[in-house]
Amino acid sequence: MAEIEQAPPPAGERALFGKYEVGKLLGCGAFAKVYHGRNVQSSQSVAIKSISKHKLSKSPNLASHIKREIEIMRRLSHPNIVKLHEVLASKSKIHFVMEFLKGGELFSRLAKGRFSEDLARRYFQQLISAVDYCHSRGVFHRDLKPENMLLDDNGDLKVSDFGLSTIKDDNHGGGGPGLLLHTLCGTPAYVAPEILAKQGYDGAKVDVWSCGVILFVMCAGFLPFNDPNLMVLYRKIYKGEFRCPRWFSPDLKRFLSRLLDTAPETRITIDDIVRDPWFVKGKKSYYVKHGQINDSQYDDYLLKSSSGGGAAHSLNAFDLISFSTGFDLSGLFSDSGNCVAVATERFVRSESTDKVVEMVEEGAKRVELGVKRKDSVVLLLGKKGECVAKIEVYRLTEGLVVVEVRFFEEAWKHKVRGLIDDQSSC
């Protein structure tokens, strides 16, 4: 986020749980404020998005969006997607701790003037790399726009703000043949025509349309579809009425006509985008195909995402409090929202951390589950390599540990529970 205001956070929140020093206010919206922060141990800069629980309690839809955003961001690990380090909860707020990007929003950069086709190509390649990766993970953003794209120290693009995203295993479907979404969402100027038709849409095709609008904006300096009257704007989008400026190259004009095709069934796909002459032009490519990002990177991210890696994690006072329904995120969002983790359960055991982990590993082999371990964290993998559960062991006292199990597949809940026999609920 770009620095726009210098104002201290509320009293008592200058240091979050002894882990992060909270500094300048970077930006604010109706429901959240974003601060610059610093990790006390590593001195690493972070961005801290703080959201009021009181405001959430008055807006069930917002709570649902934030819950979905947390779960989706935990699923994604890609060089062109903003990384969520962790989520902290105090009595009055939820705090997203994310990587800090000095370059600010792509929108702010665009406000200074349109880009050359070469620079636009660089950002577009990185955008498509991120979107392609998301789609490979079953995630559809649905609100792609320059305001949701940030730039790092090297001027590389990173996609953020997954609050309106959906995932393929949501009840109302995802992208792909026969799986159509029906939620009207997104920013008006970037919304695809099939969303306006309210007849169901493919999440992947919708993201491609938004990418086309973004490419047009980067190269033109203005929107392809724009009108102060919302209904007139929607009519232009629905009919695909736009004109390319005279400075657009012939290849770019042709490419945009395929991206902004009003018929989703003939609109260009990402597989065709990455082979298009305009897209591949240039000496250097900034596109990284999702298959080139080793799946183990995602697994490593999951293994580190709660305790930060390292040795067996001991519970401090805040960790214990956070297990209560007043502080635990799953307790805060009490709806049955569709998210990656279908349930979280905790058990108290009297064995050592290593003994519990060994017991889980042995049991996993009996039920034909794969295992990936990092210290006190274990991922259980299905036959296709999908993560069905994550088990983390915390030291509670000298003789007791808490075992936390996050279930990612409903069908495996009873089998995973059986790996931890004679448990007592925490």
Automatic annotation (TrEMBL):
Residue ranges the record marks as coiled coil: none
Catalyzed reaction equations: L-seryl-[protein] + ATP = O-phospho-L-seryl-[protein] + ADP + H(+); L-threonyl-[protein] + ATP = O-phospho-L-threonyl-[protein] + ADP + H(+)
UniProt cofactor(s): Mn(2+)
Positions contributing to ATP binding: K49
Domain NAF: 310-334
Limits of the Protein kinase domain: 20-279
Keyword list, A-Z: ATP-binding, Kinase, Manganese, Nucleotide-binding, Serine/threonine-protein kinase, Transferase
Molecular functions (GO terms): ATP binding; protein serine/threonine kinase activity
Superkingdom of the source species: Eukaryota
Alphabetized PROSITE patterns for the sequence: NAF (PS50816), PROTEIN_KINASE_ATP (PS00107), PROTEIN_KINASE_DOM (PS50011), PROTEIN_KINASE_ST (PS00108)
SMART domains reported in the protein's UniProt record: S_TKc
Alphabetized InterPro entries for the sequence: Kinase-like_dom_sf, NAF/FISL_domain, NAF_dom, Prot_kinase_dom, Protein_kinase_ATP_BS, Ser/Thr_kinase_AS
Entry's EC annotation: 2.7.11.1
Biological role stated in the UniProt entry: CIPK serine-threonine protein kinases interact with CBL proteins. Binding of a CBL protein to the regulatory NAF domain of CIPK protein lead to the activation of the kinase in a calcium-dependent manner.
Family: Belongs to the protein kinase superfamily. CAMK Ser/Thr protein kinase family. SNF1 subfamily.
Protein name as annotated: non-specific serine/threonine protein kinase
Species, as recorded: Stephania japonica
Taxonomic lineage: Eukaryota, Viridiplantae, Streptophyta, Embryophyta, Tracheophyta
